[in-house]
């Protein structure tokens, strides 16, 4: 008898949202009757293949306790860190004792509330058989330029090989923990989980998702997220 692989989710939610320019961290802004983080969490909490979810929170976070998931049997919290990679590592360490290194972990930005369930399902289905793991992304659409410091073009890049990296990013728990520990001990503050795995010489797989899986980064992204959730039929 083979045991079914267990899946966990980690949501880094300890950012302050500097680029958003709001008075409260962007993951707690209201988006169609819920907070951004509640939209992002719902898919993972409701998914019956996901055993549990760890949310990495900022130390000054007075907003989490008012969310719908603050007290939930499937959700636990961990302390966030200075950068996203520290927050993710802390959340992975919080799984020690209940998860196995061979279990899979899906890392998803709290600031990406429009992830489609079908993209999540496809990612899981394709990667459960993979030896390394991977992430959702989309191929770039525009002509890509590399600029010099004076903003004059240095080169036009071959876009056929370029993708936008999204989340979730899915790896074996033990591999991702080792990869992040390695990156941080080299002071390499990787901006996504796949980069940590790449540093170990492994090649994560890109799974094509949908462009509406945006990260709320700037003020104009919030109305766009509302539009996408409506278009997906998730809100009125
Ligand atoms: N120290 C940090 C920084 C970021 N994040 C989380 O990582 C995700 C992606 O980060 P980003 O969009 O860069 O969020 P912020 O750091 O909040 O944004 P900014 O860079 O504009 O301050 C977000 O869900 C954010 O809360 C985190 O858990 N811990
Ligand atoms: C993880 C991520 O969302 C993938 O696109 C991204 O790398 C976060 O980076 P940011 O520089 O903190 O926005």
UniProtKB/TrEMBL annotation:
GO terms for molecular function: 2-C-methyl-D-erythritol 4-phosphate cytidylyltransferase activity. Its EC number is 2.7.7.60. GO terms for biological process: isopentenyl diphosphate biosynthetic process, methylerythritol 4-phosphate pathway. Pathway: Isoprenoid biosynthesis; isopentenyl diphosphate biosynthesis via DXP pathway; isopentenyl diphosphate from 1-deoxy-D-xylulose 5-phosphate: step 2/6. The record marks 19, 26 as: Transition state stabilizer. The record marks 159, 215 as: Positions MEP for the nucleophilic attack. Keywords: Isoprene biosynthesis, Nucleotidyltransferase, Transferase. The keyword Cell membrane does not apply. CDD domains: CDP-ME_synthetase (cd02516). PANTHER family: 2-C-METHYL-D-ERYTHRITOL 4-PHOSPHATE CYTIDYLYLTRANSFERASE, CHLOROPLASTIC. Belongs to the IspD/TarI cytidylyltransferase family. IspD subfamily. This is 2-C-methyl-D-erythritol 4-phosphate cytidylyltransferase. It comes from Thiorhodococcus mannitoliphagus. The lineage of its organism: Bacteria, Pseudomonadati, Pseudomonadota, Gammaproteobacteria, Chromatiales.
């Amino acid at each position: 008898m083979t045991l079914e692989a267990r899946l966990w989710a980690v949501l880094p939610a300890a950012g302050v949202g500097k680029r958003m320019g709001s008075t409260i961290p962007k993951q707690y802004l209201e988006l169609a009757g819920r907070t951004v983080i509640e939209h992002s969490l719902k898919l993972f909490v409701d998914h019956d293949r996901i055993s549990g979810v760890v949310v990495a929170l900022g130390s000054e976070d007075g907003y989490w306790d008012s969310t719908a998931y603050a007290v939930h049997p499937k959700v636990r919290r961990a302390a966030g860190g200075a950068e996203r990679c520290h927050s993710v590592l802390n959340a992975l360490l919080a799984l020690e004792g209940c998860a196995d290194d061979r279990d899979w972990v899906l890392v998803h930005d709290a600031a990406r509330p429009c992830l489609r369930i079908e993209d999540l399902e496809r990612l899981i289905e394709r990667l459960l058989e993979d030896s390394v793991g991977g992430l959702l992304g989309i191929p770039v659409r525009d002509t890509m330029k590399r600029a010099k410091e004076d903003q004059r073009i240095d080169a036009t890049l071959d876009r056929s090989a370029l993708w936008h990296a999204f989340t979730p990013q899915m790896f074996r728990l033990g591999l991702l923990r080792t990869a992040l520990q390695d990156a941080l001990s080299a002071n390499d503050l990787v901006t996504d989980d796949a980069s940590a795995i790449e540093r170990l010489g492994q090649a994560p797989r890109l799974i094509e998702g949908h462009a509406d899986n945006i990260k709320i980064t700037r003020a104009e992204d919030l109305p766009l997220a509302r539009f996408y959730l409506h278009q997906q039929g998730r809100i009125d």
